[in-house]
Specification:
Helices cover about 50% and strands about 5% of the residues. It is of the alpha+beta class and about 1850 residues long. The protein has a five-stranded antiparallel beta sheet with strand order 19-18-20-21-22, sandwiched between helices. Strands 11, 12, 13 and 16 form a four-stranded antiparallel beta sheet that branches. Bound molecules: zinc ion (ZN) (6 copies). Keywords: Metal-binding, Transferase, Ubl conjugation pathway, Zinc, Zinc-finger.
């Protein structure tokens, strides 16, 4: 056995030696030319090695594919394989050879899923199950049932890299047992893997990884300094990169003579910019620059030049001047790097193979190869290099140099402990074997693991390799639970050097692995704990400290406390990452004690202190210079990062076990110690005087019986900063820990300030609040905008929670723990309101008259906050606090009106709206109404019960909002209680704290100073006019009201009641209020005052008696004034009228605004042309009036007026694709009603559901073949009119204008296109409008019905022989045609018919000729025969198609025609009539005349001569239209309709029969087709009879018993026939209406099926009756049927040349995915090679093409190519899922159009960056299909879009 093992190893080693040789020789072998065929050969060689010489290839490639790939010819040793040779496959272009097909990756048996989220995929986060908000699940793992009623947050991954991974199956990510069905599967046993395969797998991985490291080790050329960049240095360096012959089998490694200039990616420049620069520097053709730039973007680097070093150095200089990053590398070295790229791709591909997915062992082997040491570095000795970011030390990983700073306190020195990793893994990878080797902090440069080298070389790689490597790390390394800790340890060991590179030199930090690895590793509790134990927190802290202060990384002993933050470092946003990492570790660390027993907190404080008190508000009042440094934005944005870090520490402290709570106390002591040393000016990092730290001038104050000290610090004179992160930390410690410790932390903290002004720690917060107030009232005008901006950031952005709210909390802490007099003294000193308090308002020094009331108001506000804002005083859980914050914001924005989601978000501070719980809270609070129309959005309405939570004095409401809220609340109370509005007042929301430490938050209200303040304020308001001081009165009463409850006052002090009754100068607060009650001007406050007294009366019964002695009237006043009339007090009245006026002005403004929008916004027009103009309800329908949109003149006698129109091809004419199961079913499902589901039978519904489940989108209509789609010319028009002369001039103008501009113009002038000057619709013909009104009678047209002997006139004409009879008929026709044309023509054109002339008639003739000419030019393939029947027919048919699926809502089909469509149809129809009349009037010639044709038409139609025509697919509606109905000869409209209908039925029956016979496999599907509703027994008999007759005529030999034997078949065939008749009947009805508008007297039987209703309208018998005539022998129809059958037999027409059936169902584009992300998860990423592309789906055929994809040199994209070459369609309509938009294309031009998708809030996703899941809105999709596609609006939508954009500049504008 042992012998056997050794054999195996020897063999493997031999094999590996061969591989090494191959790797070294590769560049030479392939002549230094790297291409796809070389890639393939490398893969082949790697597979040879890894499968033990091809032995076990089947483990990677199951099946036969590569069985003899190596031609080992039975020789087990594998010597026959020559690495360098070509395999037996042709080494040509097939780069797909030797590529593993990636497996669908849902399965992850017994291990974490670790699927990387790709762009466009959904990420599911269950906030209920996840350990925190970072825990995520992929679409495969997420099971909605498992998370019922949980708070689930879905977002769409918007990043193309670093999107995170799925945590399913990770035991440390979830609170509960979250394992999906893919986890619980059993894994295959590793015993199945042969030992030799194990050996070769490990060996191969080790060899190739070592090779990659060796190659990359040589690439540190980028760190050569400038002066070394001589040709010789380059060549030397390149030669020194020869691979070590000792390791690589003593093979020589010759270098190449030639070099490349390589260009590299960076994330600074944009693509366009880069192209420009490359173009400039290279001076080559622009296509070259574009190609290089594309390569760089895709791959990360590109070759720009090849040549000698000397040549390249010059070129590099010119490239360097453009700022692009380039390097000169030898061909060999570049070749090797490309080999590395292929090797790493190969590793990734095998990790995705079934072999790795099914077994555990290969995954372990992979980790082992990565975690083991680099193969041959053991005997290297470190060089004497100085440390330089990113460089190696003789192949060893360097460590940060150990420089000791002079200002480094002892507590930064730490001892490292050895990592606690599993022994077996340490041995296996020879890592972490003893302390002091690789990872303690004293060590020397060391030999790292392969993983560490790869991390270290990360920035040397290019983006393509980086991305591949990171994906291997996260999916295969980190997700391996056995190795996870080891990997984490190896990462942390070199973290400082990695951070150094990331922060300082990485060109493309977005591709760095740091965010990914940190998030994955540091959020694992075991890893986080290990890191804390090992002592790495300190190393990470010193890393960031060094970077922020010195722009270099220092070890802990290098921390220099005398340094300040560098703005340049702060400007580099990347540093936040390090704090995120720290935050993760601290949050997830499980041994909390460790954080507080060592010196970590002290060190953290040093880091936090870097931001303390910075920057100060700069003022230059004296110099009268107005400036302010803009650094504040940098500091403000840093603050939230820093504070999140300190908050994390405080949270950890609160998790300490009870016994360890003394640690909190010592932490607090440490912190306060630091604060006091700062205040004393002893802390080195903060220099007193420059910041807001100043030696405090403590002064003694006495008066009013108080003797106290206070410190002088006038806010308006001294430095003040908003940022005090140390104090925020202090506040969090107190808040989070106070409730858990028996010690009063406040008292403890307060002891530290002995000998100084004891209130100092709280003073900073107070100063900030006072400064805010001063800014708000406009005290700091000089500083202008920037200071207002600081106010905004501090008060309303994320800084709010860690700045402003902390300040309020600290002030509450202050009031809770210090004597009221001391506190109030400080308050009023800081507010500079002492003179106010002492009643000396007149001689004020600080605030002028204008500012003073504002400051008093703000101060009152401040007291309201202190008394009512108690969120942080109650020890609420974090989750509850977050929810409360969100809840309050939502309630106070939704209470005024219901809003859409985006509106809510714009009202709420961004940081609140961004919280993941936001939507969940919103759902609880509000009712949601989804959008119902085509342009609205979903609306949220606050639930009734939450209105009770509206608090007008909510701390974050602006004063305007406060007024609105007061009104709102009062009105609601009024509604509920019916109390008069005057009697209603608002109760303050005060409650007690349940934490003893904060029980006295209201103590300050008992100070005499506070009483004096209230006293002065009331006095002030009583002096003035009540209406001028509304806010102050309102607030002061509210403060008194809140104080009256005395809820947060401890018994040590006097009560508020006492101080309220205290008299000063003969009056008291109470007496002032009594006084107010007697003043009419204060009437609106009386109820509030009564409310206040009410509170006192309930507590102090004698209060009323005491006061009544002085105010006899009081008792009466206190009783609710029951007799009060509803009269509005004057103040209220004034306020109301002012408000009303404001509202009026606003409404006026709004109106103007929307008017403006309506006239200036083209956007609203592209919705649908249909709704633009609706006919006014006039009696007779009018043709467009003569109003020229160009010259704006009304009619002109001499001018011919007309409308512009568009002749284009439409491909909406479809045939039933009988061989396509889906579309066949769809064609016969639901023909008319929007909601056809009613008639869907069970089988069809099941079938559609199955298809939907299987296909994410589509299936596409088979529209790539002409068989199924027909493109025909149709006419459309925007209906706008102009004079012919103006039209001509306009065309000339356009031409000359186009020569001047270069942008993309929407119209193709060479195709005669022009835009309507008014609505920008594309048009290309002018058609005259010579008519007034259409008042022809419809009932007259339909007067002669088609019953009984209806066919007699036709029989007569069919057999006509008498020439004179023909002439007679012709004459009749002529008369009728002319009469029809003259009917509604304008009088000025009547001469036209009398062969007379006039100027306008002459002009008219010219116009008509020009129309002919124009149409001919436009439509060459269309045989223009001088008759417009074809065009009118096509247009009516396309109009009918567009109307399918629109519910007629009780009316007739023609009632659905829009005015615009009707105008178009009627104008052209009359033009056709005119033309016919002209032809009829023409003198006879030799050719068959027009009249001959008409008669001949009738003769064919009336006889069996018609049979060959319909067999070949004649369109019977067209036959009908070409007939020129001749009433006088008995060919009435109904009769002709019936005749053509008969032929139509025969044609359909014939085609259906032959198609059915041809598609036998689909018979079962056909039998399940849905049926028409009102089937009668006789119908089936008729249908079967017709089928059998046709079938016997076609192919009597085919056995159809399977079909006809089914009882279902007759009904199905009948239903199919009927459905095919419906479009014909609808068209007949539309045409009748186009001719005649006057439809009075038309009565249609109600409540019939659509087809019968149409029959009734058209005066023909119901279909069932008509069908029965086919069966009844002797009937006209029956005879024709048999003639048809015998014609078929006679001509032996079997089913081979079957004609097609027109598609009778609703014509639609393909089904879209229900959710946009389905496209990616369920379709696009199933094939993993798609990762970075922009797919577009053709909505006709379902083909997927690349939107950006175009080959170099071809300007035409794949989409355009598809439209032009592959799909039969006149336009392109694509869905672009990445950007959630539609792409419209028309003749090579294109634009985007909003896709019919809405986010969960019923809103259009204008910015797909939001990453919300998007849901299909079928209604909007249907509207798009109808209004844009079927109504020929694509070109108009594009034109309007292009017109409104100045420069569309390519697709990049996305
Ligand atoms: Zn998953
Ligand atoms: Zn899973
Ligand atoms: Zn859950
Ligand atoms: Zn005009
Ligand atoms: Zn127009
Ligand atoms: Zn297509």
């Amino acid at each position: 056995m042992i012998q056997r093992m050794q054999d195996i190893w020897w063999k493997t080693l031999r094999e590996l030696d061969a591989l090494k040789r191959y790797l070294v020789l590769c560049p030479q072998t392939y002549d230094y030319k790297f291409d796809n065929s070389v890639r393939k050969l490398i893969r082949r060689a790697l597979f040879h090695a890894v499968s033990d010489g091809g032995q076990y290839l089947a483990h990677f490639f199951p099946g036969e594919q590569y069985e003899n790939g190596f031609e080992t010819s039975g020789n087990v040793s594998g010597e026959a394989f020559e690495y360098g040779s070509s395999p037996k496959y042709d080494s040509g272009s097939e780069s797909d050879d030797w590529v593993l097909t990636p497996q669908a990756r849902a399965a992850h048996p017994r291990r974490p899923c670790a699927r990387v989220f790709l762009k466009g995929e959904p990420i599911y986060r269950c906030l209920t199950c996840g350990l925190d908000e970072t825990c995520a699940m992929c679409a495969d793992c997420y099971d909605a049932d498992a998370h019922k009623d949980h708070v689930v947050y879905i977002n769409i991954c918007m990043r193309s890299n670093n999107g995170g991974t799925c945590d399913c199956g990770d035991p440390e990510a979830w609170v509960g047992d979250v394992k999906c069905k893919h986890y619980t599967k059993e894994q295959k046993s590793d015993k199945d893997i042969p030992v030799p395969l194990q050996a070769s797998l490990l060996g191969t991985l080790e060899v190739v990884l070592d090779y990659v490291i060796d190659v990359m080790n040589g690439t540190d050329i980028c760190y050569l300094s400038e002066k070394h960049q001589t040709p010789a240095a380059f060549i030397d360096h390149s030669n020194s990169c020869d691979l070590d012959p000792a390791y690589y089998e003593l093979v020589p490694d010759p270098n190449s003579e030639q070099y490349y200039l390589m260009l590299y990616n960076d994330y600074v420049r944009h693509y366009r910019d880069a192209v420009q620069r490359i173009h400039m520097a290279t001076r080559k053709v622009p296509e070259f620059a574009e190609m290089v730039a594309k390569e760089i973007e895709k791959y990360g680097k590109a070759k720009v030049w090849s040549g000698t070093v000397k040549e390249l150095l010059e070129k590099q200089l010119s490239l360097g001047a453009t700022g692009l990053h380039s390097l000169i590398r030898s061909h060999r070295d570049v070749f090797r790097e490309d080999m590395c790229d292929e090797i790493i791709r190969w590793i990734k591909s095998i990790t995705e193979s079934a072999f790795f997915q099914d077994y555990q062992l290969p995954r372990d082997v992979l980790c082992r190869a990565f975690c083991s040491k680099w193969g041959h570095g053991e005997n290297r000795i470190p060089d004497d290099y100085p440390y330089q970011t990113g460089r190696m030390n003789n192949g060893l990983i360097p460590i940060i140099p150990r420089v000791r700073s002079h200002h480094n306190p002892d507590y930064w020195n730490i001892e490292a402990k050895r990592w606690e990793l599993p022994e077996d893994i340490c041995l296996e990878c020879s890592y972490n074997l003893e302390a002091g080797r690789e990872n303690d902090f004293q060590g020397e440069p060391f030999v790292g693991s392969r993983f560490q080298y790869l991390l270290y070389f990360d920035i040397r790689f290019w983006s393509s390799v980086r991305a591949t490597l990171h994906s291997i790390y996260v999916t295969s390394l980190i997700s391996n639970l056995r190795y996870k800790n080891t990997i984490s340890c190896q990462y942390v060991d070199i973290y400082p050097s990695i951070a150094d590179m990331f922060l300082r030199v990485d060109r493309e930090p977005e591709t760095s692995f740091m965010c990914d690895l940190s998030t994955q590793l540091f959020t694992t509790p075991t890893d986080a704990t290990a890191i804390v134990k090992h002592g790495d927190l300190t190393r990470i802290l010193s890393t960031i400290y060094g970077f922020l202060t010195m722009d270099c990384i220092v070890p802990p002993e290098g921390v220099d406390l005398s340094k300040q933050v560098l703005l340049s470092s702060l400007n580099n946003r990347k540093w936040g990452q390090v704090f995120f990492d720290l935050g993760y570790i601290i949050n997830r660390n499980e041994e909390t004690r460790l954080l507080f027993t060592g010196n970590f907190v002290r060190q953290a404080c040093d880091v936090i202190a870097l931001f303390q008190s910075r920057p100060i508000v700069v003022r230059a009042a004296k110099e009268h210079v107005e400036f302010e440094s803009n650094d504040y934005t940098l500091y403000f944005s840093a603050l939230s990062v820093i504070c999140r870090f300190s908050e994390a520490i405080a949270k950890s402290a609160s998790k300490l076990p009870h016994a360890d709570f003394f640690l909190v106390e010592s932490t607090l002591t440490t912190l306060v110690d630091l604060l006091s040393s700062i205040d004393k000016g002893e802390y080195r990092g903060i220099v007193p005087g420059t910041l807001d730290v100043a030696p405090s001038l403590v002064k003694q104050w006495s008066g009013l019986g108080i003797n106290a000290i206070v410190s002088e610090y006038p806010v308006h004179l001294q430095n003040v900063s908003f940022l005090h992160p140390l104090h925020s930390f202090f506040s969090w410690l107190i808040e989070l820990c106070s409730q858990k410790t028996p010690q009063n932390l406040l008292a403890l903290a307060n002891q530290q300030y002995v000998g100084m002004y004891p209130l100092l720690p709280y003073d900073y917060s107070l100063r900030s609040i006072v400064l805010l107030a001063q800014i708000k009232v406009g005290f700091w005008v000089r500083n202008g905008f920037s200071i207002k901006n600081q106010l905004h950031i501090y008060r309303h952005t994320s800084v709010r929670e860690c700045g402003f709210m902390r300040d309020v909390f600290l002030c509450q802490s202050l009031t809770s723990s210090y004597p009221p007099d001391d506190v109030c003294l400080l308050f009023f000193y800081r507010w500079s309101l002492m003179p106010w308090v002492s009643g000396q308002v007149q001689n004020y020094s600080v605030y002028d008259k204008a500012n003073l009331p504002g400051i008093v108001e703000e101060c009152l506000n401040f007291f309201v906050w202190l008394l009512t804002e108690n969120m942080h005083l109650k020890g609420l859980s974090e989750d509850y606090l977050t929810r409360t914050v969100i809840r309050k914001e939502i309630i106070h924005s939704l209470c005024f009106q219901s809003l859409s989601f985006s509106k809510i978000v714009s009202e709420v501070p961004e940081h609140v709206a961004n919280l993941k719980k936001f939507e969940a809270v919103l759902k609880d609070l509000a009712l949601y109404t989804p959008p119902s129309g085509l342009n609205d959005a979903g609306i949220y309405k606050l639930k009734e019960k939450y209105f009770d939570e509206v608090d007008p004095y909510y701390i974050h409401l602006t004063s305007n909002k406060r007024d609105d809220a007061i009104k709102l609340v009062k009105e609601r109370i009024h509604k509920r209680t019916r109390k008069p509005l005057n009697d209603i007042y608002i109760e303050p929301r005060v409650s007690e704290s349940n934490i003893p430490a904060f029980a006295g938050a209201g103590n300050f209200t008992t100070s005499i100073l506070f009483a004096k303040f209230l006293h002065s304020t009331l006095n002030y308001t009583l002096q003035g006019d009540a209406t001028n001081n509304e806010s102050i009165i309102d607030l002061v009463l509210h403060v008194i009201h809140a104080c009256a409850y005395e809820k947060s006052v401890t018994s040590t002090y006097r009560s508020f009641y006492n101080i309220m009754m205290d008299e000063h100068d003969g009056s008291s607060v109470a007496s002032y209020m009594c006084h107010m009650l007697t003043i009419e001007g204060f009437k609106s406050y009386h109820s509030k005052i009564r409310g206040i007294f009410g509170v006192f009366v309930s507590k102090y019964q004698d209060v009323a008696d005491i006061l009544s002695q002085k105010f006899p009237a009081l008792k009466k006043a206190l009783e609710v004034d029951a007799t009060a009339t509803g009269a509005e007090p004057e103040a209220e009245h004034k306020r109301r009228t002012a408000k009303e006026r404001r509202e009026r002005v606003m409404a006026e403004f709004k109106k103007k605004q929307s008017q403006f929008a309506a006239t200036n916004k083209v956007d609203t027009m592209d919705e649908s042309d249909v709704e633009m103009v609706e006919a006014d309800e006039a009696f007779a329908w009018k043709f467009p009036e003569e109003h020229c949109i160009l010259c704006q003149m009304p009619s002109a006698e001499e001018e011919v007026f007309g409308i512009i129109s568009h002749l284009s091809n439409a491909a909406s004419f479809r045939k039933v694709p009988f061989n396509d199961e889906f579309w066949l079913t769809k064609a016969f499902t639901g023909s008319s009603d929007e909601d056809s589901h009613g008639e869907l039978n069970e089988a069809t519904r099941t079938y559609f559901d199955e298809v939907k489940a299987k296909s994410v989108f589509g299936p596409g209509f088979p529209s790539t073949s002409l068989d199924n789609v027909e493109s025909r010319p149709v006419l459309s028009s925007c209906g706008h009119g102009m004079h012919f002369t103006c039209y001509k001039n306009y065309l000339v103008n356009i031409k000359s204008r186009q020569n001047q501009i270069t942008r993309t113009v929407p119209e193709n002038t060479e195709d005669r296109e022009f835009l309507c000057p008014l609505c920008k619709a594309v048009n290309n013909v002018f058609v005259p409008v010579l008519w007034n009104v259409n008042n022809k009678s419809l009932s007259e047209l339909l007067s002669r019905d088609a019953d009984g002997k209806w066919h007699e006139p036709f029989d007569r004409i069919a057999v006509i022989e008498d020439e004179s009879l023909v002439l007679e008929i012709q004459e009749k026709i002529k008369d009728e045609v002319i009469a029809r044309a003259k009917h509604c023509v304008k009088s000025k054109y009547l001469k036209f018919f009398e062969a007379e002339t006039s100027p306008v008639v002459e002009k008219c003739v010219i116009v008509i000729e020009s129309v002919f000419h124009g149409l001919q030019k436009l439509n060459r393939p269309f045989l223009f025969d001088g008759d417009f029947s074809g065009l009118v027919v096509n247009t009516i048919e396309s109009v009918e198609i567009a109307l399918r699926g629109v519910s007629p809502e009780g009316g007739q089909i023609f009632d659905q025609l829009s005015h615009q469509v009707l105008t178009n149809l009627r104008v052209w129809n009359e033009f056709r009539n005119l033309n016919s009349a002209m032809l009829a009037m023409k003198e006879e010639t030799d050719l068959p005349s027009f009249l001959d044709d008409v008669v001949a038409n009738y003769q064919i139609l009336a006889s069996d001569e018609m049979i060959p025509c319909i067999e070949q697919g004649a369109d019977l509606f067209e036959s009908l239209v070409s007939c020129h109905i001749v009433e006088t000869s008995g060919f009435s409209y109904p009769r002709t309709v019936r005749l053509c209908l008969m032929w139509h039925i025969l044609q359909t029956a014939y085609s259906l029969t032959s198609q059915i016979l041809q598609n036998m496999p689909l018979w079962s599907r056909i039998l399940n087709l849905p049926l028409v509703s009102n089937l009668e027994a006789n119908d089936l008999v008729c249908a079967l009879y017709v089928f059998e007759t046709m079938k016997n005529g076609l192919s009597p030999e085919i056995d159809v018993s399977n079909l006809t034997g089914s009882p279902q078949f007759g009904s199905v065939f009948y239903s199919m026939l009927v459905k095919c008749c419906v479009p014909y009947l609808r068209r007949c009805a539309i045409w009748a209406y186009v001719q005649c508008d006057n439809h009075s007297g038309i009565a249609v039987e109600e409540c019939l099926s659509q087809e019968n209703q149409l029959c009734s309208l058209l005066r023909i018998p119901p279909l069932t009756e008509i069908f029965s005539t086919f069966v009844t022998s002797g009937q006209y129809e029956n005879q024709r049927l048999h003639s048809f059958a015998s014609y078929l037999t006679r001509n032996n027409l079997n089913h081979i040349n079957a004609s097609k059936v027109e598609y009778p169902g609703i014509i639609s584009l393909i089904n879209l995915p229900e959710r946009m992300d389905d496209f990616f998860t369920r379709y696009y990423y199933k094939d993993l090679n798609h990762e970075n592309a922009d797919p577009a789906v053709c909505l006709f055929c379902g083909a997927v093409v690349q939107i950006q994809g175009s080959s170099i040199g071809s300007r035409i994209g794949q989409c355009n190519l598809h439209v032009e070459k592959e799909c039969i369609s006149e336009c392109g309509i694509f869905l672009v899922p990445r950007y959630c938009t539609l792409l419209l294309l028309w003749k090579g031009k294109g634009s985007f159009y909003k896709a019919p998708y809405l986010d969960p809030h019923g809103e259009l996703d204008e910015e797909p960056r939001h990453g919300k899941p998007l849901y299909l809105n079928q209604k909007r999709y249907n509207a798009f299909v109808r209004n844009i596609w079927l109504n020929h609006g694509v070109q108009n939508a594009i034109a309007r879009n292009l017109e409104s954009v100045i420069d569309i500049g390519g697709w990049e504008t996305l």
